[in-house]
Amino acid sequence: MDLEQIFKSQQSKTRLIAGSSSKERKAKLKRLERSILQHRDAICEGMWKDFQKPATEVDFTEIYPVLLEIRFAVKNLSEWMKDDHVPTPITLLGATSKIKYDAKGTSLIISPWNYPFQLLLAPLVSAIAAGCTAILKPSEYTPHTSVVVNRIIADCFEADEAVMVEGDVDVSTELLQFNFDHIFFTGAPEIGKVVMTAAAKNLSSVTLELGGKSPTIIDETANLDAVVPRIVWAKFINAGQTCIAPDYILIHESQKEAFVRKMSDQIEKNYGKHPEDSQSYAHIINEKHFNRLSNYLDEAVTNGAVILYGGVTKQDEKVISPTLIDQVSMDGQMMQNEIFGPILPLITYRKKEEVIDFIESKEKPLALYVYSKSRKNIDYFLKNTASGGVGINISALHIGNSNLPFGGVNNSGIGKSRGHFGFLEFSNQRAILDQRIFSSIEFLAPPYTNSKQKIMRFLMKYF
Fold first, then answer.
1. Pairing, β 182-186 against β 323-326
2. Are both 228 and 284 inside the same structural domain?
3. Do 203 and 224 lie in a common domain?
4. Is the dihedral of CA 143, 144, 149, 155 positive or negative?
5. Which of 137-141, 234-238, 339-343, 454-458 has the lowest mean pLDDT?
6. pLDDT by residue (tens digit) across 348-406?
7. DSSP 8-state symbol, 341
8. Where is the domain boundary, 380, 400, 420?
9. Which CATH number is 134's domain given?
């Protein structure tokens, strides 16, 4: 596949696509929706082959979120595309002002393996809504899913409008050499830095959805009967391979014993006595990541950590059971890196200040979760932390509201996505000042007389 030729063909189509009407863009989105529904069984089958992801989980975390994005965009696109008329200050008397939303142009979407359908197609929905062309690069780790997605893209679009290209890191490296108008990358922070460096050479704008160690705070007032099922779901869905999964727990010491007991019971309620054998529990994507997680566990135990529940590993099947672990060294890999797997460290605290000191010692996370019945405590944690998103008495579901921006801050991401925010990421917000009659500049142009100086002083004092 000639990548340069694909890029050039999309570049040549940029203006035409950018000039498409809301009706035309909606038609494309509806066509994409129909194709997704037609391929639903094949999508589920592909993900089962790639990492034994259960079909219901595929429906809920992969297909349905994309359908929601499409339907939300179709419902709101006409309004999003309208020029936004804004006030004009009196100092620019005689003019009107507006913001026009122009498509940025040719875009590149690079997605990871953990949600190979949602994280590739959700940005595409935003690109189509904004009137951009797109080259999509999926992860090489999910080849069976990619076959189906490629079929869907080819079914819905001409290659000079949207096309998927497959391959390893060399393909991504070659694509990043091209002068894209916008690059949307989802993945690890260390790779995000590579993408941003490549984009800087062409001054391409970027959206980086990265990750980090998302903390979960459970205070002394939290209702564990409500807390535990939500954490078990958010942490162990997709076997913990979720960028906004709770990475570690900061729990008030008075709640720890009951929390561990209830977590163990809830894990078995969801996945049975042997979760590693459950048909409702996904596997680790490949041997590389299985070994990484196994090494985290081995290192932690060697350094004095205690496994409170789980810890079962099956290398042949690439599965690690839901695991609770205590007394983890803060210097080990598990607490220095994003875990991105079904291992949940517990850290106890006595005072709220300890929580803030711990969180602030790390990079700003993609998500922060607070479980509490105390509004005072919730407000304290929110005021003294920074994160891309927040869940209060819930985890990982803020991404499901298209009215909210999704994204990180600094090391956990740059830019926002989903819904209107995704449309804006792929759009140039073009400022237009329309001088209908006389201009105020006519009163202030050289030569600078005493009367003009008086006018300027008057403006500075009162306007």
1. unpaired
2. yes
3. no
4. positive
5. 454-458
6. 999 999 999 999 999 999 999 999 999 999 999 999 999 999 999 999 999 999 999 99
7. S
8. 400
9. 3.40.605.10
Mean pLDDT over 442-451 rounds to 87
Does the predicted TM-score (pTM) go above 0.90?
yes
Q: Are residues 223 and 139 part of one domain?
A: no
The answer to whether 408 touches 210, Cβ cutoff 8 Å, is: yes
Q: What's the CA gap between 268 and 131, in Å, rounded?
A: 47
User: Domain total for the chain?
Assistant: 2
Domain range enclosing 132: 3-210+411-430
β partners of residue 109: 136, 184
Q: Which two tokens stand for residue 117?
A: 């359908």
Spell 114-150 as b/e; 16+ CB within 10 A means b.
bbbbbbbbbbbbbbbbbbbbbbbbbbebbebbbebbb
Q: Looking at residue 90, what is its pLDDT?
A: 85
Which residues have a catalytic role annotated? 209, 243
Q: What number of CA atoms fall less than 13 Å from residue 364's CA on the CB side?
A: 16
Q: What are the two backbone dihedrals, phi and then psi, of residue 326, each rounded to the nearest 5 degrees?
A: -125, 160
Instruction: Indicate if 306 and 197 belong to the same structural domain.
Output: no
Mean per-residue pLDDT of the chain = 96
CA separation for the pair 30, 138 (Å, rounded): 22
Residues 200 and 246 in one domain: no
Answer with the residue of higher pLDDT: 224 or 93.
Answer: 224
Task: Residue count of the chain, please give it.
Answer: 463
